[in-house]
Task: inverse folding
């Protein structure tokens, strides 16, 4: 039986020796993001939803492109759009539901 509490991470290669590590969100974190991204009519603000997944799941980064700055929400938001989008896409993929067979790999 797999451990439901084992942290799942992915390392995103951003090129040029730059890498970022993202972790899969918990149920509580995922629920917070859904609530925060919900608009008055019930729709989801896709940009806010996507950005918050990456912000909340960001564990660390390394490489010359980060200029020695720590992996914080503020610094994440200051990244170039291309890099922010790549991390947001990776976070969305990581946080998709998995089947019971996939477990916590």
Result:
């Amino acid at each position: 039986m797999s451990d439901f509490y084992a942290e799942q991470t992915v390392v995103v290669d951003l090129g040029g020796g730059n890498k970022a590590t993202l972790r899969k969100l918990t149920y509580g974190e995922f629920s917070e993001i859904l609530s925060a991204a919900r608009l008055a009519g019930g729709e989801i603000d896709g940009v806010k939803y996507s950005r918050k997944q990456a912000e909340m799941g960001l564990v660390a980064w390394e490489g010359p492109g980060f200029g020695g700055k720590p992996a914080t929400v503020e610094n994440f938001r200051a990244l170039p759009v291309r890099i922010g989008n790549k991390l947001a896409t990776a976070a969305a993929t990581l946080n998709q539901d998995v089947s019971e067979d996939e477990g916590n790999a």
